[in-house]
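User: two proteins, same treatment. go.

Assistant:
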Amino acid sequence: MSKDTTTQLDRIEADILKQNVCPELAKQATQLVFGDGSPDADVVFIGEAPGKKEDEQGKPFVGAAGKFLDEMLAMIQLDRSEVYITNIVKYRPPNNRDPLPGEKQAFLPYLQAQLEAIAPKVVVTLGRHSMNCFLPDLQISKVHGQPKRIKLAFTDLVGDQRADGVQGDDEKRTEPYSNTAKGVSQSSTQQSAAKRSSVSGFAGKQDALTLVILPLYHPAAALYNGGMRQTLIDDFQTIPAILKKIT
């Protein structure tokens, strides 16, 4: 499977370059930072956008936040080579600013194609920008460390999904989330869906993809707020139990 998945991922990466996604971002960046790790990973980590070190090396999470991520992986007996790591936006925003809604929307079809190719058991979102692409109506301060099962319709990565907790069988199902991400117009959502359908390697054979989303704070948050370090570690250490439950 890994050979076929690797081929699909290579095609998706090539499509980003061919389609000249976010040309202004691409112009000021050193290179595309697509993703790194195992194409057969059970766990995919999704951050926001590359930073300076990532831009220089062409790999996600290789700076200070990446070192902390590696430490937490070791705590649960996992290695970077066994998981897959990527970002929503694949080019470094200037001065490490937050990714803009339009930039996130432009890359969503390619992120969706990555997830369909890898088909992970758990998607760990790192930071609010990443979480809000899947769970746009939730606040990370209230749901961090709480896994949510979503049914992801292929009409749009951020639309038509339903979510529920996977911590307990008696947990109530949440209401459907909005059809568009905050700050993104319906027309851009339709463009995103159209673009997604043209991405190489995106099979589009399924009507929906069921994912378990685990929202976590971004590892960089622990670098600026020491009190958050233990919170992030505690949340991170729930990953093996979640994997065991859904295996």
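Protein 2:
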Amino acid sequence: MSDSETLAERFARQARQWVGAAGTATERIARAGRLQLDCLAIRRERARELQALGERYLELLERGGEGRPGRDSTVEQIRRRIADLDATLRGHEAEIDRIRAVAGPDRGAPR
């Protein structure tokens, strides 16, 4: 506190700092919440892709020697989509972990 700063000015300055810190923490927690919702949607999409992959694989098996899953373009497209979803999910989860690390153990994103 400088000599010219009054008690009221000091309190006002500290209050602004506290409000700024609270706003930043709230923004981090909100971001983590949005990321968790995105993760849920990604997991659902991944489950749909896995179902499509299973159905395609079964279709190829039922054809007998005609279709080979390892060389089927549809199987490969689904596999790539699953890999992309997995990468996105890992990125989101890493970001959530970073937010939790900054926020502290009791103030991170909801679980």
